[in-house]
């Protein structure tokens, strides 16, 4: 149970992964700030206390004792200060027009998306596993409609009601709709009867005659309307760079869509699964996953870096205080009304937002630890 904490290799990979992702993010702020004439005070790797630093062109490049991420300090940009250092100076953040401030704030998120596309393209080019578009049935639950219809483990789903589905997620969503259910197992409004489904399966390489199966509306614990467990068939692939970039873009969009759907799932909306809302992982869970993924080689690790980078980009652009999206919101409001919000109010809002984020991090970490101790 505790061996993951003693795995030095996993710890090193984990720290390097996050340091790269966050450093690239901060480099976006750093680069655009300098290009737009803002004075950068420090580009830091890790968090204080400071180990050492060197100064070049008036900028401190520092290495700090806590080897996790990093930060950039720009003159006149301090979320929690009522009176900004260097306020009124030509090189300060607040002295620049609102659009310049907005560019600097968005640049970090943009660089994370760029990093994701680069490393994911590299992963697909090196050769990794990717979905083939086939969906395999890996388990048929006893007493289920699928078992009654003659479905077997190992069958491939060729088509359903004349439609070809290339992912298990799409099949599950369609099945719930045909059953007249939301993804959380509750009836649609208005309620309706389940609709029969005509399914064509492939067994041992041969397409079978179509079967008709009607999904159930009363779901046993942990089961769906058909009583099937599905998986997306994957295979090793190595593709050209243009094809790899296309796959990287598709995966990036898919991750963004999954994150966008997360609030509804957590609140028990229509697309929450029958097993309840999804589990949210924090740093400890990501540490565990990093160790597991690293065992599968460089390509798999690059995919993890790409997915984490997209996650950071999307979460950081959310208009919540203390995040880049929250800062951007204040800048846009100031640009629209041609007047900055009271520095006292803005500093207080960011401070409250930071405390809320810190509290959320603690709660998620407690959940992670519970999973570790329970072996989940």
Keywords summarizing the entry:
376 residues; alpha+beta; Pdz3 Domain; 2 domains; four-stranded antiparallel sheet; two-stranded antiparallel sheet; 9 helices; elongated
**In DSSP terms, counting alpha (H) and pi (I) runs of 4 or more, how many helices?**
9
Oligomeric state of this protein: single chain
Proportion of residues in extended strands = 15-25%
Main structural class: alpha+beta
Main β sheet profile: 4 strands, antiparallel
**Unreliable stretches covering 5 or more consecutive residues:** 269-277
End-to-end span in angstroms?
10 Å
The portion of residues assigned to helices is 40-55%
The H-and-E topology, N to C, reads as HEEHEHEHEEEEHHHHH
Shape: elongated
Q: Layout of SSEs?
A:
Elements: H1 8-35, E1 40-56, E2 59-74, H2 98-126, E3 128-140, H3 145-148, E4 156-160, H4 168-179, E5 197-203, E6 206-207, E7 211-213, E8 228-237, H5 241-266, H6 283-294, H7 298-316, H8 324-337, H9 343-374
Antiparallel strand pairs: 1-2, 3-8, 4-5, 5-6, 5-7
Helix pairs in contact: 1-2, 1-6, 1-7, 2-5, 2-7, 2-8, 5-7
Structural summary, described in words:
With 376 residues, the chain is of the alpha+beta class. It folds into 2 domains: 3-126 and 285-374, no CATH class; 129-237, Roll (Pdz3 Domain), CATH 2.30.42. It has 9 helices and 8 strands. Strands 4, 5, 6 and 7 form a 4-stranded antiparallel sheet that branches. A two-stranded antiparallel sheet has the order 1-2.
